[in-house]
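Notes, Module 5: Reading structure tokens.

Key idea: the token line is not a picture. It is a compressed description, and you learn to read it the same way you learned to read a sequence, by spotting repeated patterns. We will look at two proteins. The first is printed below with its tokens.
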Amino acid sequence: MNSYLLSIQNVIAAEIKTLEREALLLSSSHLSQVLDLMQNTQGRVVFTGMGKSGIIAQKIVASLSSTGTPSIFIHPAEASHGDLGMITAQDIVMAISNSGESKELVDILNYCKRFAIPIVGITKNPNSTLGKYSNYVLPLPTTPEADPLGLAPTCSTTATLVLGDILTVALMERKKFTKKDFQIRHPGGKLGAILQLVKDVMHTGKNIPLLPENAPFSQVIVEMSQKRLGCVGFVDSLGRLTGVFTDGDLRRKMSPDLFSKTAVELMTHTPKQIAPDVMAAEALRLMNEKKITTLFVVENNKPVGIVHIHDLLRLGL
């Protein structure tokens, strides 16, 4: 086996062993109490840590903030020079230190004790300075690092990162965090596009190509040309969507007596439709599956909009 392949396997094996050990530790830890504290805090969850621990802390903050748990990161060195004022009496502090002896954390720990701000320590050593200062400790496994020297943060940072994911997912479940909540916090980029709802992109009002189902064919052609969406929908006397006629239907049904017919004679009954609160990505999937380019958006059997495949492709779906 090539040496680099052996190295890959060794690193992965070491990381897996660490996570298995972490699962056992957390099953008998104060995890439930910490989640209660994070869920019920009236302030924010403040993370801090030095070096690689600080980098992991910033990722956890980003995950929590984007999923309904307001969080911030404070650099321990900056905290000692004024940023302690960012921590309020309503906050809780989550301090990360592999050894639990990072001297840069001392000022934050003393500040929290002075103002009775709850501290959660994330460390390998519950008996360390950090462990003794903390109201609760979430233990990290004491497995060796994965590098040849056993010094570079590898397994320990993975364990911390996964712990952050555990906290994030658990709080999402506790708070019943929805896709709509997620979309509100992610309006930009590819993720924002994926989370758009049909009602966010549909054409509405006078832009919907609609006619009564007894409309003459000449009126159908005018409506299709004016609205420029390649189709016309038809409604009955109660305003319910009953059919659709597309530019494809026009080519297929071309005949000398075409203009003597009414919409109800030409339309496709029970047209494909979608609800306004469905994800835009689902509308695109349905269009691709049915090989169509438009969908009427219907609520209580009545059309409230129409979405064209070009509207969805412009989102980058």
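Here is the second protein, with the sequence above and the tokens below, as before.
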Amino acid sequence: MKKLSFKAMLLAGLAATAAMGVVQSARAADEKYVLIHHSPDSETFWNTVKNGASLAAEEVGATVTFRNPPSGDLADMVRIIQQTTAEKPDGIIVTIPDLETVGGAIADAVAQGIPVVTMNTGTAEESKKLGALLHVGQPEFEAGKGAGERAKAEGMKSFLCVNSLFPNVAGQQRCEGFAEGLGVPLGEQMIDSGTDATEIANRVKAYLSSHQDTGAVLTLGPMTAIPTIKALKDNGMAGDIYFATFDLNPDISQAIKDGVINFAIDQQPFLQGYLPVITLTNDLRYGVLQANSVLSGPGFVTKHNLTLVESLAGKYR
């Protein structure tokens, strides 16, 4: 048998290593992830989240599908998590709208060996408690508090919080934070607006009619912001009452330009979709995982910085 030279053995080894790398890459590609959120189909906020997750999946060669309870019912969300867990995807990205309701199903997915990244609603502490890799989202109480402090600096002392997020605790936290920032008790200044646009507008008008000393309005996203804009135009208060909202879309950007909305609180939903896909892929392929959860917000969008983001609102911002 002919003895191979060191150079020949080295070349053969390199060739084998390269071949193994090709096989490993082929195995690693096309991970299948499922992103599960709590909102109903009518909530347009999630389009930006989906854009972020889809772009990340395209960049790394994975696939991501999206699931949610069509009506926003959390019992349906629990069933979706359970069904997804039974399918054994390579990873699950999921919101924590209410720890008591959905936490058990998320923890079970982790217990069955499925990597989980939580995002959007919930906290880093809740995510860790459930065994998830990390959380990507905005601390809701602090975001509301920061918004309230901005309103207080403009002389606001009372407000209406238009909350369509029940039973998602994030809505309560945003309203409580805003009250804390103003330095007033929340009391009855938060209403359950429902999710129907006409009903939201009617409830806003009814509240403002019976509470004529209301200084500010806070809405928790496009679902409530757009009907509230209509309500304020209908009752002649648009541009006169202090108005802040969470999240961005083209209508909200236009309302900021028009002076109807003073500022928007941007939690950067694109990052909430994009970063979990990257995190799962790096962990699965390379065993690389950042040490901490990621705070995607809050940022504040006003007339002064709107031009930087309005062309991307609803897609990347």
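Summary for the second protein:
- The mean pLDDT is 91.
- Residues 34 and 65 are 5 Å apart (CA to CA).
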